[in-house]
Amino acid sequence: MAVDLSETTLSALSDTVGRPGYDRAALRPGIVHVGVGNFHRAHMAWYLDQLFEMGEGHDWGLIGAGVRAGDAAMRDKLAAQDWLTTVVELDPRGLNARVIGSMVDFVPVDPQAVIRAMADPAIRIVSLTITEGGYYVDAKTDGFDAAHPDIAHDAASPDAPKTVFGMILAALRRRRDAGAEPFTVLSCDNLPENGHVCARTVTELAQLSDPALAEWIRHAVAFPNSMVDCITPATSDRERALVRDHFGIIDAAPVVCEPFRQWVLEDNFPQGRPPLEKVGAEFVADVSRHELMKLRILNGGHAAIAYPSALLGHHFVHDAMADDQIAAWLRTLETQEIIPTLQPIAGVNYDDYLDLIVSRFANPEIGDTIPRLCLDGSNRQPKFILPTLADALRAGRAVDGLAQEVAFWCRYCEGTDEAGNTIAPNDDNSDALRGHAIASRSDPLAFLKNRAVFGTLGDNPVFQEAFARKLKLVQDQGVRAAIRAYLSGA
């Protein structure tokens, strides 16, 4: 019989379910984390739970925080179950579950409550999972978007901020004025050079209202880069039913994820850090090559399969990977055009990493969806595909496959799949993308004229020729003909 998850019911859970063996009441908070979604709980919170289980780092308990309405809903769910979360690893060899207890509190979703939590000198790390698009990056310049209404508000009202970055600034100001050491700001988002991007947003927002604070932050606050990885699908009734029926737990917000995690961090934590290397995290002097490997091979691989699979009508990622053409397209693009843009990493074999990625994508237990991979293309393509394309062009390498990927995205942006089914808008810029995509039927280069996405890359004649040729093929003959042509070298 299923039981409601709470501290008092842990002892009633099945012996097949892991649970904290440490005294949660003895944990002391050391981290405030903003963005308590599925990925955070499957990743950072899981690593800390593993560390606490070893009897280590009990002064690094997590306090959750948030700034959106959805964060308030998550707080309500977790409060009812004493901040516990069931994490189910979707291993094809057999599912396993553990209730993790590394979160000790979740402050009310109120700016002043968040600021007070961050300003507490016991907090030595403020970490973020706010999505790739949450850093106020200007799509046209790739710089700080100082004109965004949220930023303008926080610059004008620094004591009553709306954004997480305004809250970070307010907390840092309080700590500076009180003579307390600043916390380290750790981005856990899937973003190239996430620490540098976070530092730029924080300091440039500070510059708008308090240049002296901005200068102090530049010298006193650490923003380490990190690379994070764990495929974590959204939670629906399907996942809640799985946890209830398979493990006997009624959890309002369980997390399911693949049985793989990776976390590589720049070792730059002036106020200390939990010894996460004891549970599999890797601390290095420079994260950039690991980060680029993941962004290009894994995230670029997701982008590569997303749009042709959607056009063919695939819904689940594992079904797409069971399509021999899609699988061959992915491997060929990766080996011929993506991996050659990467510099070597000591101890890393890129072919082995690609094999791992393919097996992860093919895992039928995850239930990851093609629609999820297609989300927010105007934000993801410039991060996961276009930099690879630019590097290949600079090196004089072949770009037919990368141009084909962009052509698949263009065809997808028209808004229908190959069977004529409507594709629901899933990008903040859907209308503009659709207009450019439809215009490309008469002018093949119309899609590349979207400066907000392509910048000057769309002016490159080598890219223009390859894109126009590949787009015509997919428009006239369809996805499968386009893939066949690429695989045959045509």
From TrEMBL:
A molecular function GO annotation: oxidoreductase activity, acting on the CH-OH group of donors, NAD or NADP as acceptor
Residues spanning the signal sequence: none
InterPro entries hit by this protein: 6-PGluconate_DH-like_C_sf, 6PGD_dom2, Mannitol_DH, Mannitol_DH/Oxidoreductase, Mannitol_DH_C, Mannitol_DH_N, NAD(P)-bd_dom_sf
The entry's keywords: Oxidoreductase
Tree of life domain: Bacteria
Record-annotated Mannitol dehydrogenase C-terminal domain positions: 286-473
Residues of the Mannitol dehydrogenase N-terminal domain: 30-278
Name under which the protein is recorded: Mannitol dehydrogenase family protein
Provenance organism: Paracoccus subflavus
Phylogenetic classification of the source organism: Bacteria, Pseudomonadati, Pseudomonadota, Alphaproteobacteria, Rhodobacterales
